[in-house]
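lol forgot to send this yesterday, sorry. struct tokens for the thing we talked abt
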């Protein structure tokens, strides 16, 4: 997820990884973005981003699937996958 945060920050927005039990601070405008895993195996991962905007609106991005053929997924591959998810999604303002 750090790769996705770096990609969001490159778009001029603040991003941070928080735990699922983190509390929203009053007056802070945030959107919560999650990765929804649809499929995972040793050679494939598929999923989409979903979010809840600061105003309560919800949305989801397109499903992205990636495969590997001759090696297990590496951190760099998964960071690239996260970057592609962010680049291909129109998140709320």
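and heres what i got for the seq, position by position
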């Amino acid at each position: 997820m750090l790769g996705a945060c770096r990609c969001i920050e490159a778009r001029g927005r603040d991003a941070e990884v928080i735990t699922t039990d983190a509390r929203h601070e009053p007056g802070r405008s945030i959107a919560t973005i999650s990765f929804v895993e649809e499929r995972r195996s040793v050679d494939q991962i598929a999923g989409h981003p979903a979010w809840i905007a600061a105003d309560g609106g919800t949305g989801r991005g397109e499903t992205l699937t990636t495969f590997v053929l001759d090696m297990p997924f590496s951190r760099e591959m998964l960071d690239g996958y996260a970057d592609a998810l962010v680049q291909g999604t129109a998140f709320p303002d």
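The first strand starts at residue 32 and ends at 41. anyway ping me if u want another try
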